[in-house]
Amino acid sequence: AQSVTQPDIHITVSEGASLELRCNYSYGATPYLFWYVQSPGQGLQLLLKYFSGDTLVQGIKGFEAEFKRSQSSFNLRKPSVHWSDAAEYFCAVASGGSNYKLTFGKGTLLTVNP
Amino acid sequence: EAGVAQSPRYKIIEKRQSVAFWCNPISGHATLYWYQQILGQGPKLLIQFQNNGVVDDSQLPKDRFSAERLKGVDSTLKIQPAKLEDSAVYLCASSGLERQGEQYFGPGTRLTVT
């Protein structure tokens, strides 16, 4: 069965600092990987996805993520964090085929200090 | 393009009562998902529809939860009778054939069972 681990429950960074959120997955075949962001009281918004090809993927809001098969990781990065990036971030893995069933990690809450 | 709509946004009920949630997906999206998000956890898939047929309901507690998508558009999720542990946010998402794998989420319904 597929699973996702986000080791950090809560991360605090200063505005302007760089950010890396960790994600490890478990899946037998080539995974489809996603990062979503959830602001308080809001639904989830897709930041970026990896299906195949270039292992460094660019997303919205200046985020990027790198797929490393050897480490079963898909870490999310941003070079300079803005106060508006404070939110909860979820990594997810989907099985292949036609139904794209998502399994989410437990999330990482990001706090941004001024 | 209008997003995924859900109602109500908030609902408070007593245990053993029944409740229903409504979802209207993005126009033209054939696939519709219902997720349950318990506080402090990532969303968990309850049921997935393709048009008006069920693709996956393996994690739906069928003794108390039911869902339908009669005309392949709107969907309702019902809980009867509710238990305290059903307190959660219920998220609806949809996806289309043109960008497979990308799920678009509604704002969710926050259910509190007392």
Give a written overview of the molecule.
The complex is a heterodimer of chains A (114) and B (114). Chain A is 0% helix and 52% strand. Chain A has no helices and twelve strands. In chain A, the strands form three sheets. In chain A, strands 2, 5, 6, 10, 11 and 12 form a six-stranded mixed sheet that branches. A four-stranded antiparallel sheet of chain A has the order 3-9-8-7, with no helix packed on it. Chain A starts with a strand and ends with a strand. The model of chain A has no long low-confidence stretch (mean pLDDT 92). In chain B, the strands form two sheets. In chain B, strands 2, 4, 5, 6, 9, 10 and 11 form a seven-stranded mixed sheet that branches. Chain B has a four-stranded antiparallel sheet with strand order 1-3-8-7, with no helix packed on it. Chain B has no helices and eleven strands. In chain B, strand 7 and strand 8 form a beta hairpin. Chain B is mainly β and 114 residues long. The interface between A and B is medium-sized, with 25 and 25 residues.
